[in-house]
Automatic annotation (TrEMBL):
Residue intervals passing through the bilayer: 6-27, 39-64, 70-91, 112-134, 146-167, 179-200
One GO CC term, this protein: plasma membrane
Organism: Paenibacillus solani
Membrane topology: Multi-pass membrane protein
Keyword Cell membrane attached: yes
Taxon lineage: Bacteria, Bacillati, Bacillota, Bacilli, Bacillales
Protein name: Lysine transporter LysE
Record keywords: Cell membrane, Membrane, Transmembrane, Transmembrane helix
Keyword Cell membrane tagged: yes
Alphabetized GO MF terms: amino acid transmembrane transporter activity
Parts forming coiled coils: none
Annotated compartments: Cell membrane
Length: 205
């Protein structure tokens, strides 16, 4: 059982560690909100979305759904459109020196909607979860599969919580908002780059 736990931990950490749209959004919200508790909606939403994707991947439901080529195409198109839009919004977001004004950029409702979008409308992330975690879970059955899924989910929750805390610390160290402004530009470029990659992948399929 220890081997299952270690496998789940390393695999989940390896998937979630790279700098991506979801990670940047959680970090940014931790930085711009006036209090850490106000960033909890995005942290919880991102964690719940990952929990859903991991659960579907382990159960094999998502693999069956994505066998339909038309569904994959729709998922890619929606993801590309959203990433382009999200990149524009992020690029135009100019943090001010006043935390309250910065926090208004993303209300709790917007945090939840955008967190769901960057989690569920990013085909690259969805397919990675299915292809890697779903395939790896096939090696286990019964209690071992349940433990494997639980460890992957726990890593996701702890990671997003840590990102929110790190973002909050960065926001307090940079009250002028200059660091966040640079991060917004980087975030937008990554989103557009991801959209371009997805578009290129779509043309090859």
């Amino acid at each position: 059982m220890l081997g299952v736990i270690v496998h789940g931990f390393i695999l989940a950490l390896g998937l979630i560690l790279p700098l991506g749209v979801q990670n940047i959004f959680v970090f940014n919200q931790g930085a711009i909100q006036t209090r850490f508790i106000k960033a909890l909606p995005v942290i919880i939403t991102a964690s719940l979305c990952d929990t859903l994707l991991i659960s579907l991947a382990v159960m094999g439901v998502s693999v069956v759904v994505l066998e339909y080529e038309w569904f994959r195409s729709v998922l890619f198109v929606l993801g590309i459109c959203f990433l382009v839009y999200m990149g524009l919004v992020t690029w135009k977001s100019i943090p001010s020196g006043q935390a309250q004004e910065k926090a208004r950029l993303f209300t709790q409702k917007k945090q939840i909607v955008f967190a769901m979008s960057v989690s569920l409308l990013n085909p690259h992330a969805v397919l990675d979860t299915i292809g890697v975690i779903g395939t790896s879970s096939l090696h286990y059955s019964g209690s071992e599969k349940a433990v494997f899924a639980a460890v992957c989910i726990a890593v996701s929750w702890l990671w997003f919580l840590g990102l929110g805390i790190a973002g909050r610390a960065a926001g307090r160290m940079d009250p002028s908002g200059r660091l966040l402004s640079v991060l917004n530009r980087i975030s937008a470029l990554i989103m557009w780059g991801t959209a371009g990659y997805l578009g290129w992948s779509l043309t090859l399929s």
